[in-house]
Design a protein that fits this description.
The chain has 21 helices and no strands. The chain is mainly alpha-helical and about 525 residues long.
Length: about 525
């Protein structure tokens, strides 16, 4: 799978060869992995959910609405990473600008428009500060933005005493929950429309619940922001210079590019995007507070690398980041359906980052064995995601029982219990529930743990036959875990079976691809 296949004609080739060439061209795109994961995971969730249709328009628009704030932040992060930089302060910038914008309106008497402009200006100033230290003083971006992560979060807390504002003015709704079709529907229901406008209003009213109800401004702004930024990157000198700086900064400087200026501009855009993402978040939040945006830097980086942008700079695309954001939201929704709390979602996000970086390294090596190992590792990760549902229930119940028994032992020994110990004492009924929960989830946890171990072993040693057997085990596990009440893990098992099965064909595909190249 080398670049020699670029533009290889398909005329005269068999259907199998055309498919191989198509796959090569598809997977050459940085965003191919994210798009494939979205399709597979979406289809799996569609079949796993029995009470609703995943692919209905209103549900897809809800995902886009929820993706909008972090998506805008991730778009700015993409530009920074394309220059081989990093910005760990975007979450704190988001929280600072959100809090100050709300306080300017609620307590300091600023008009909403002026408060919004001030918040965006703060984002630009922070980007200027970060970019100046990185570009003109030569400080490492990691250190500068790591310091900013604390500085800007602390500044937000100090300026607002970490207190929430009252409900924000309605103008903020235009960045988030405002539905541009709501006024048209209201006018139609009030009989205020006539002619062609009445027909449109009636159409909107008829399809309100199935389509237009979840149509919000946050989704429109999210998509428009990516379109505008993509046009700038693809058609302007700035965009070309960003890729040049990330690919080879000394070479770009020798070619006459003012690398310092364009690096500064990139950090300004990144912080501006964080401030703009704060407005989109405020458009969906009831109030402003300085603790918004915590861990957003992790989510933004995850979306960027999942979308195929190289952490080493110079390669990637905004549309890959767009799909990376959507994929993160799909996974988070799946874990929410599995009743896993936010802390597990953080664990999964970190794991996804490792997988995405591994994909980037494998893409550069173009080694079939590395591709096979990567697919097997992804399969093992899918097994781990399936394991989390029963394991979290079993582990939570066992920890509760252990803490209860430890507190009981202290009390029976005559020790004075601290408030924390007392809080961990359970009533007999609660103890019985915890014991039942632990026993009910033990078998499922052990079965999926065994699958995870086997998939992990397959990363290092495997054969064609055992790999297909492992893929079959993934599929056979689906009705088993569904009978145990873990049907929500089906998407992960399906995806695991697909990637494990695909790993058996890697060497054959590579060999045939080389043959196609040699034969012209």
């Amino acid at each position: 799978m080398t670049d020699d296949l670029q533009g290889t004609p398909t005329r005269g080739h068999s259907m199998q060869d055309r498919l191989i060439l198509l796959l090569i061209r598809f997977f050459r795109a940085e965003w191919s992995g994210a798009l494939l994961a979205i399709i597979v995971l979406g289809i799996a969730i569609e079949f796993a959910t029995t009470d609703t249709m995943f692919f209905r328009p209103s549900n897809l628009m809800t995902i886009l609405n929820n993706s909008a704030p972090i998506g805008v932040v991730a778009a700015g992060m993409t530009l920074v990473i394309l220059t081989a930089g990093i910005d760990l302060s975007v979450g704190s910038v988001m929280g600072l600008t959100a809090a100050l914008t709300g306080y300017l309106v609620s307590f300091w008497g600023f008009p909403p428009a002026l408060a919004i402009a001030t918040g965006l200006g703060i984002g630009l100033l922070i980007g200027t500060f970060n970019g100046t230290l990185v570009a003109y003083f030569g400080m490492p971006a990691f250190i500068v933005t790591l310091a900013g992560l604390s500085i800007w979060r602390g500044t937000g807390h100090l300026a607002t005493s970490a207190q929430a504002t009252p409900q924000l003015p309605e103008i903020f709704d235009y960045f988030g929950r405002y539905n541009p079709f709501s006024d048209l529907r209201a006018a139609n229901q009030a009989g205020e429309l006539d002619g062609f406008a009445a027909k449109i209003g009636a159409f909107v009213d008829t399809h309100w619940l199935s389509f237009f109800r979840t149509f919000q401004m946050s989704m429109l702004i999210f998509i428009a922001f990516f379109i505008v930024l993509s046009i700038i990157i693809a058609n302007t000198r700035y965009g070309r210079y960003v890729y040049a700086i990330g690919s080879n900064e000394p070479g770009a400087r020798q070619a006459g590019i003012n690398t310092r200026l364009y690096t500064l501009m990139t950090y300004m855009i990144g912080s501006f995007a964080a401030a703009f993402g704060a407005l989109l978040f405020l458009g969906r939040a009831p109030y402003a507070k300085s603790d918004y945006g915590q861990m957003w830097e992790l989510d933004a980086i995850a979306a960027v690398v999942i979308g195929g942008t190289s952490l080493f700079g110079g390669r990637g695309s905004l549309w890959g980041t767009f799909m990376g954001v959507i994929l993160l939201k799909l996974i988070n929704n799946g874990l929410t359906l599995a009743q896993l709390d936010t802390f597990w979602q953080m664990v999964v996000t970190g794991g996804i980052i490792l997988v995405a970086v591994g994909i980037d390294i494998v893409r550069q090596s173009r080694d079939p064995e590395a591709v096979r190992k990567l697919l097997a590792a992804v399969g093992a990760f899918m097994a781990f995601l399936s394991l989390m549902t029963p394991a979290s229930f079993w582990l939570g119940a066992r920890i509760s029982l252990m803490e209860h028994n430890a507190a009981m032992a202290l009390r029976e020994a005559g020790e004075k219990l601290a408030p924390g110990h007392t809080a961990r004492l359970m009533e007999p009924a609660a103890v019985e529930v915890a014991m039942t929960t632990a026993s009910a989830n033990l078998l499922g946890a052990l079965a999926l743990l065994a699958l995870t171990v086997l998939a992990s072993v397959a990363v290092f040693r495997t054969s064609w036959l055992t790999t297909l057997g492992l893929a079959l085990m993934f599929l056979l596990m689906i009705p088993v875990v569904a009978a145990m009440g873990y049907g929500v893990t089906t998407p992960f098992l399906v995806m695991g079976a697909l990637v494990i099965g695909a790993s058996t064909f890697v060497f054959a595909v590579f060999e045939r691809a080389r043959g196609l190249v040699e034969n012209g």
